[in-house]
Amino acid sequence: MPLVPYEPFRHLENMRREFDRFFTTDLPAFRSSFGHSFGNLSVDVHETDNEVVATCDIPGLKKKEDVNIDIENNVLSISGSINRANEVKEQNMYRQERFVGHFQRSIGLPATVASEGVKATYKNGVLEIRMPKTKPDVKKRIDVDFR
To answer: Where do the structural domains in the chain lie, given as residue ranges?
Structure first.
């Protein structure tokens, strides 16, 4: 009979691995028609020489009051809601997979942007936000006063 060292917490390690696997898997029940987690936006961000551009797909917005865009401390925040309640009565609904409800996303920007001059356009379900970059502070040498 081979000797195996006693490991009292071996079963707990297996449970931890299973929990990690379960919670890192994107569960289909929580996915929306956007192809990502429920209520969360997928955002593409790129920068040019003069601006930072963020693009995200948000199908179903009806008016500009349905989306909020904020920039604070070099963080872009996009939030809003999609309401499709008036399209079909709930008792007549056979299957509902399109996203309905509140969405929110905050993203750190790759460069410092000015809050003035930001332009946002929404066309064919795509929101594009163009943010002008601010000029970086010029390196300035500080003289030390020795006494």
So the answer is: 30-132
CA angle, 70 then 124 then 83, to 5°: 65
At residue 138 the predicted structure's pLDDT band, cuts being 50, 70 and 90, is low
DSSP string, the chain: -------TTHHHHHHHHHHHHHHHS--GGGB-TTSSBTT---EEEEE-SSEEEEEEE-TT--SGGGEEEEEETTEEEEEEEE--TTTS-GGG-S---S--EEEEEEEE-SS-B-STT-EEEEETTEEEEEEEBPPPPPP--------
Task: Please state the rounded mean pLDDT for residues 89-104.
Answer: 74
- CATH of region 30-132: 2.60.40.790
Residue 130 to residue 55: CA distance in whole angstroms: 9
- Render pLDDT for 32-86 as a digit per residue (tens, 0 to 9): 444 444 456 789 999 999 999 999 998 888 888 889 999 998 899 999 988 766 6
Q: Chain centroid to CA 4: how far?
A: 48
